[in-house]
Write a structure and sequence with these properties.
- The chain contains 4 helices and 9 strands.
- By secondary structure, the protein is an alpha+beta fold.
- The protein folds into 2 domains: 48 residues, Ribosomal protein L9, N-terminal domain (Ribosomal Protein L9, domain 1); 77 residues, Ribosomal protein L9, C-terminal domain (Ribosomal Protein L9, domain 2), CATH 3.10.430.100.
């Protein structure tokens, strides 16, 4: 089913894009949440009329994302964890701990923005990318230190 996005959705596309999604996703999530409209001739004409507004919104989103990326790039995030005698972590460091540590520094990041392929299970320093906007991924440094 083809729909027109009314807002930027990271996994689908930017505002104003015509994307193909499953019927269930459109019917149960995108349309009720008013994040998209059906791809009809009337809606396409409305999209063309509002194209200038949409381009301004995209530029604003990208500009804000670049500002956030500048703030995040090179940030060191220190996480204190409990370790055993062999310097192995009890548990692991996940995206939630990284988000909390960044929030303590005054940087607001959502959990799904942290590109952590697998939880961190050892002490050390790890470079982690943060997806701020499509194509904008600043890198932070996560230091896991013993308690």
């Amino acid at each position: 089913m083809k729909v027109i996005l009314k807002e930027t959705i990271e996994s689908l596309g930017i505002i104003g894009s015509v994307v193909n999604v499953s019927e269930g996703y459109a019917r149960n999530y995108l349309l009720p949440q008013q994040k998209a409209v059906l791809n009809t001739s009337h809606n396409l004409q409305m999209l063309e009329r509002e194209k200038a507004k949409i381009e301004v919104m995209i530029a604003k989103e990208k500009g804000l994302a670049e500002e956030v990326a500048k703030k995040l790039d090179g940030v060191v995030c220190k996480i204190v964890a409990k370790v055993s005698e062999e310097d192995r972590l009890y548990g692991s460091v996940s995206a939630r701990e990284i988000v909390d540590s960044l929030a303590a520094q005054g940087l607001v990041v959502e959990k799904n923005m942290v590109l952590l392929t697998e939880p961190i299970k050892t002490l050390g320093t790890f470079p982690i990318s943060i997806r701020v906007y499509k194509g904008i991924k600043p890198t932070i440094t996560v230091e896991v230190v013993p308690e």
